[in-house]
Design goal:
InterPro entries: Acyl_CoA_acyltransferase, GNAT_dom, Rv0428c-like_C, YpeA/RimI_acetyltransf
Helix content: 25-40%
CATH superfamily of the largest domain: Gcn5-related N-acetyltransferase (GNAT)
Pfam families: Rv0428c_C
CATH topology of the largest domain: Aminopeptidase
Low-confidence stretches: none
Strand content: 25-35%
Protein name: GNAT family N-acetyltransferase
Number of helices: 7
Organism: Shinella curvata
Mean pLDDT: 95
Keywords: Acyltransferase, Transferase
CATH class of the largest domain: Alpha Beta
CATH architecture of the largest domain: 3-Layer(aba) Sandwich
Radius of gyration: 18 Å
Length: about 250
C-alpha cells in the first residue's frame, strides 16, 4: 500500500526539481509540456488526485490537442495518485505501457561522512550541460533545451562534474536541495569509466553536499530497466518508495 501523502510530496518536489516550460492544470491533472526537450517527465499529463474523475474522455481529448500543438505524443504518467477510473479507461482503450520508473529514497543521516569531501559543485551550467551530453552520448542538439531546464530550477542546485586531464568529463550529476529533500538527477558516467566506482563517487559527492545544505532525505527517479543504476542507488542506501508508468494510445 502506497503512502499517498509521501507520494504527493515527492511528486511536488520532483516537478520543482525538473520544471517543464509549460505547466497547466485541468482540475488536478497537471499537463507538463516542453518544446525544447523530449523527456517524458517534461511532456506528460500527471493526475494528482485519485478522486478527480470527471469527464475523463473529454479531458484526454483536450490534452491530446495540446500535446499535438507541441508535436508531442499524448502520455499519461500513471502514479499511485492516478484515479482508478482513469486507469480503467486507458485499459479499456488499449493504451500501451511505454516506460516504467522507480522512485527511490534514502536517509542522508546514513551516508558515510568521509565521502565526497574534495568535490564541490560547479556554477557553470553550460560546462555541466556539455559534460552531461558527452558522458551520456546524448544528441548535442539537446543542449539549449537542457540548459533552459536547469536555469529554470528554482530550489538550490549543485552541479557536479568529475574530470580527468587526459580524458575529459568522466561523470556528472546534479542535486536539487528543496528544504529537507534533495533530488539526484542527470547522473551519467562515461562508458569507458563505468564499473570503476566513478558513479558511486559522484553520487556521494552530491549527497554529501545536499546533506550539508540541510537535506535529510534524498530521492531519485530511475528507469526500471536500468539495472546498473538501480544497483548503484541500492548500494548507496536507496529503497523503493513507489513506481509509475507512462501510458499512451497505441497510435502514439
Amino acid at each position: 500500500m502506497n503512502d499517498l501523502p509521501k507520494v504527493r510530496r515527492l511528486e511536488a518536489v520532483g516537478f520543482r526539481a525538473w520544471p517543464a516550460a509549460s505547466a497547466q492544470y485541468d482540475g488536478s491533472w497537471l499537463c507538463r509540456l516542453t518544446a525544447g526537450h523530449p523527456s517524458r517527465r517534461l511532456n506528460s499529463v500527471n493526475p494528482l488526485d485519485p478522486s478527480d474523475i470527471r469527464d475523463i474522455a473529454i479531458r484526454l481529448e483536450k490534452a491530446a490537442k495540446r500535446f499535438s500543438d507541441y508535436g508531442r505524443p499524448l502520455l499519461v504518467r500513471q502514479t499511485p495518485l492516478t484515479p482508478p477510473q482513469l486507469i480503467a479507461f486507458m485499459d479499456d482503450a488499449g493504451w500501451a505501457d511505454v516506460g516504467h520508473t522507480i522512485v527511490m529514497t534514502a536517509n542522508l543521516a546514513d551516508l558515510a561522512r568521509e565521502e565526497g569531501v574534495d568535490h564541490l559543485p560547479s556554477r557553470d551550467v553550460g560546462r555541466f550541460v556539455d559534460a552531461r551530453i558527452r558522458v551520456a552520448g546524448d544528441d548535442p542538439a539537446l543542449k539549449p533545451g537542457l540548459t533552459e531546464i536547469i536555469n529554470a530550477i528554482k530550489p538550490e542546485v549543485g552541479l557536479f562534474i568529475f574530470e580527468e586531464a587526459d580524458f575529459g568529463p568522466t561523470a556528472v550529476t546534479l542535486a536539487v536541495q528543496d528544504n529537507d529533500l534533495a533530488g539526484i538527477l542527470q547522473l551519467g558516467v562515461a562508458e569507458a569509466r563505468r564499473g570503476q566506482g566513478t558513479g558511486t563517487a559522484v553520487l556521494h559527492a552530491a549527497l554529501r553536499w545536499a546533506r550539508l545544505k540541510g537535506a535529510r532525505q534524498a530521492w531519485v527517479q530511475v528507469e526500471a530497466d536500468n539495472a546498473a543504476a538501480i544497483a548503484l542507488y541500492r548500494r548507496a542506501g536507496f529503497n523503493d518508495a513507489y513506481r509509475y508508468t507512462y501510458r499512451g494510445p497505441e497510435a502514439a
